[in-house]
Design brief:
This is Mannitol dehydrogenase family protein. The chain has 491 residues and is of the alpha/beta class. 47% of the residues lie in helices and 11% in strands. A hairpin with a 2-residue loop joins strand 4 and strand 5. Helix 5 packs across helix 7, helix 10 packs antiparallel against helix 12 and helix 15 packs antiparallel against helix 16.
Amino acid sequence: MDELISLSNATLDQLAVERPRYDRTTLQPGIVHIGVGNFHRAHQAWYLHRLMQEGKAHDWAIIGAGVRPYDAAMREKLLAQDCLTTLIELDPKKVSAEVIGSMIDYLPIEDSNGALIITMAEPAIRIVAMTVTESGYYIDPVTKEFDFNHPDIQHDAAHPDSPRTAFGAMVAALRLRRDARRGAFTGLSCDNLQGNGDILRQTVVSLARLSDPDLADWIDANATFPNSMVDCIAPATGPNELALAKDFGIDDDAVVTHEAFRQWVIEDNFCAGRPDWDAVGATFSDDVHAFETMKIRILNAGHQVLANVGEVLGLRTISECMQHSVISSFFGKVQRTEISPTVAAVPGKSPAEYISLIESRFSNPRIVDTTRRVAFDGSARHTGFVLPILRDQLQAGRSVEGLALVEALWARMCAGTREDGSVIEANDPIWDQLSQNAFAAASNPAVWLNQGRIYGELSEAGPFSDAFSKWLTMIWANGCEAALIAYVDDA
């Protein structure tokens, strides 16, 4: 192998892959993005990079940011390579690479978020975007209301000038902008939440109201929070992914692999302007809800259909789950009989067509998307992705047998062991609570459903609770595969 090229502005011309054709030294910031993970760089940062390649949006460059200590490691890696990222596209037929350069800086990680607040208050920053995970918005999983009592929220309300959360930092920056008559920025959530813009508005405005009601009113009236739907599978980076970059002659400590598919649907509601993302494939729509419902219910809930049973049976990746004939049959039946009836068509795509697309994407063996990653934070993902479907099915008087089996498989996984006896390590912010209840539910399934902050009134829904008890009992007695076969074979 030829000598590796360390990724930097100075070495771009030496690369044998697609790379920035624009002068990165002339880029000016317009966006702060909080949560610079793989998905952001494979998705939003890529769309902006494509615009820059066309000579556009050079005043919209991204400044990265984080609010958690673990963000410091990513900051160090990216700054060492001038905030460049190698994206490796894993199409089933070929592997290709490109280097993107739409991010130009990464702010220090600080307990009081001082640098983040000052930067967001600058008039050049017109959009503050974020990917902070579905559980990061301080909402009650059952009521969907703002969680005023969370310790982080209580801290930020009491210390508005030195907040510990991203939302507290946004409030502090908006206060500075109001006082300086600079106008508000747009808050753009890029997380997998139904109505993510509405939820972001709720979190920011509710937090501001705890310390400054007048500021809360000003934010509500002047800032905008468009809803958006985002989609691109970008697995976690490990040794194999780092090695792929080296195959292209690039030494990149923060390489990102991704599938050959992207989708971004956004409400056109930006109070301080925006890049023309639609010129490079994004869609602006007044009906984001329909797109996000299709994606969240079929793809995101579909991930939970696969990942929990995959973990229990020792299948390492989502594509391995799809190669397992019984699991893939289970997936297809749940999707077509219980999930798709709750999903409306969108322009150019029916639910049936979208299910077929997802089956193809999930089956891509080049995408090493682990069941562990997909199963992470099930307490947020089941409440956000699966249970709303279950509620709609119950309300319509339709079957919830398959969805009840999905929940039983999650309960089995949370017991913390696979069927081969190996240990499933903690994989949820409330893992200890889930494990305790999962053990108890092995002999008394009702214990699992009585987790009120997860299931709420669903524990009293007879068709669901009866089916759940039946499936969990069968899983513990005969194993997961026997339960799946019983469900699939039941006409």
